[in-house]
Structure formats: structure tokens, C-alpha cells
Design goal:
The chain has three helices and five strands, in the order E-E-E-H-E-H-E-H. Helix 1 crosses helix 2. It is globular. The strands form two sheets. It has a three-stranded parallel β-sheet, covered by helices on one side. A two-stranded antiparallel sheet has the order 1-2. By secondary structure, the protein is of the alpha/beta class.
């Protein structure tokens, strides 16, 4: 897998990354959690080290999914996330009920 350096501090990631939004929102119903974890871990096994998520995907659930899937690879992967959305935590509680 080819690598790319990001910025000036030597951060290196795979040239290909995995955008994870569609695993929990955006393109229809969320995928099966265990299947999505398997997809993410398979990507790591194939050399992908750059993963994209955001708190707005779900909301909140995509970051949790990506975090759970990548826990065994801590220190070996890079997670890009977007933040700063004005999300209402009460909305999440209502959706889970």
C-alpha cells in the first residue's frame, strides 16, 4: 500500500482511506454492526490506515462504531473526524428509546 505524509509533522497514512459514514447513516439504513466492524478490520488487514468519521454521522453512532472496530489497532491507524456541530444529546436519547 502506498503511503502519504500529511502536514509537516510526519503523520503518514495509507494513500487509500475508508470513509465510514455510510456504515451508520447517509445512504439508507445502518449496516449490521458486526458486519461493519468486520469491513473496517478487513480494511486494516489490507493496509488501510486512514479512516474518516464524524459525530454527525448517526449522530454519534459512527464514531462509536469506528472506535470499537479499530480498538485492536490503536497506534497503527489514523482516524479523521469532523466536529463542532450543534447536536442535541437529547435527540440521541429519543432515537435510542
Amino acid at each position: 500500500m502506498q503511503k502519504r505524509k500529511l502536514g509537516r509533522n510526519g503523520l503518514e497514512v495509507s494513500a487509500l482511506g475508508l470513509g465510514c459514514m455510510g456504515m451508520s447513516s447517509g445512504y439508507g439504513p445502518a449496516g449490521d454492526k458486526q458486519q461493519m466492524i468486520s469491513v473496517i478490520r478487513s480494511a486494516v488487514e489490507r493496509g488501510i490506515t486512514f479512516f474518516d468519521t464524524a459525530e454527525v454521522y448517526g449522530p454519534f453512532t459512527n464514531e462509536e462504531l469506528v472506535g470499537e472496530a479499530l480498538t485492536p489497532f490503536r497506534g497503527q491507524v489514523v482516524i479523521a473526524t469532523k466536529f463542532g456541530f450543534d447536536l442535541d444529546p437529547k435527540r440521541r436519547s429519543a432515537e435510542e428509546a
